[in-house]
Amino acid sequence: MRAVCxxxxxxxxxxxxxxxxxxxxxxxxxxxxxxxxxxGKQPQxxxxxQVPGPLPPTGAxxxxxxxxxxx
Length: 71
Prior knowledge:
By secondary structure, this protein is α+β, with helices and mostly antiparallel strands. The protein has a single domain, classed as CATH 3.30.1330.40. It contains two helices and three strands; from the N terminus they run αβαββ. Strand 1, helix 2 and strand 2 (46-50) form a beta-alpha-beta unit. The protein is globular. The two termini are 16 Å apart.
């Protein structure tokens, strides 16, 4: 997400939605903690859904889909 933002010249604050598809929804607490550790009290633009595995690519437990306002 940071690399994509950097490539288009957008700030992390321009992430308007981050969707996570997880084979175990309990993993979401780690995602939320990582966001807070990096970005403090900035709002977390998350949605998380537990989905059946296996996910593509082989061995993945989480797939992220990010919407970034770059205009």
